[in-house]
Amino acid sequence: MVMLCGSVTRAGIFPQPTNKEVFRVSDTTTIFEQEQDFDTFGGRLSRARAATGLSAKDVAWRLGVKSSTINAWECDRSQPSALRMDKLSGILSVSLSWLLHGVGTAPADPEEESAMKLVGEQLAKLKQLHAETGLLIGRIEGRLDRLAQSPAE
User: Fold this and answer.
1) Which of 1, 36, 77, 136 has the lowest tally of Cβ within 10 angstroms?
2) What span, in angstroms and rounded, lies between the C-alpha atoms of 123 and 146?
3) Around Cβ 97, how many Cβ atoms within 10 Å?
4) CA angle, 36 as apex, 85 and 70 as ends, to 5°?
5) What are 4's strand-pairing partners?
6) Which ranges in the chain belong to alpha helices (H)?
7) What was the pLDDT predicted at 70?
8) Strand, helix or coil at 132?
9) Which pLDDT score is estimated for 19?
10) Residues β-bridged to residue 75
11) How many angstroms separate the CA atoms of 104 and 22, rounded?
């Protein structure tokens, strides 16, 4: 029997990968085509925490550590264990690869969010103007139709 990470594979042999599986595996390298965030781990952690609006005390409570431990991580004096690193990425809604290496799903940029909000508001106003224009066009067409049907004097 062959053991793989504590589990037994079916029929005791490793399954042969299909072309589809090979493509999926090779597709994971696309995150490294992104522009890398060259900040330190602590800097990325601090920015992600600020983007979520959580205090160091909040994050520490969720992880079961002291807030001084979070501060040490953010100042690059130490790093969390692998298990806590995984939990951190979940709490902060960022990818583990971004937290560790600066590539992957990063926290939302506040400036980008405000720009998106502004564009959304402008789009809503444009849609409203479009609807009003459609109503006016309908009224003008109605008047033209009535004028065309009225008897000539």
Assistant:
1) 1
2) 35
3) 16
4) 30
5) 7
6) 19-27, 41-52, 56-63, 67-74, 82-91, 96-101, 110-149
7) 92
8) helix
9) 44
10) none
11) 21
**Residue 72, amino acid:** A
CB neighbours (10 Å) of residue 74? Answer: 19
Distances (CA, A) of 133 to 36, 70, 105, 125: 46, 56, 41, 12
Maximal CA-CA distance, the chain: 102
Give the predicted TM-score (pTM) of the model: 0.51
Tracing tokens 């402008």 back to the chain, one arrives at 122
CB 47 within 8 A of CB 107: yes
Q: Are 61 and 70 in contact (CB under 8 A)?
A: no
Q: What is the pLDDT of residues 85-125, one digit of tens each?
A: 999 988 988 888 888 887 877 777 666 667 778 888 889 99
Q: Both tokens of residue 10?
A: 């079916």
Q: Provide φ and ψ at 93, rounded to 5°.
A: 55, 45
Residue 102 is given by DSSP the state S
Taken in order 47, 119, 103, 54, is the CA torsion positive or negative? positive
- Looking at residue 3, its pLDDT comes to 38
Q: Which two tokens stand for residue 153?
A: 């004097």
Q: Are 138 and 84 in contact (CB under 8 A)?
A: no
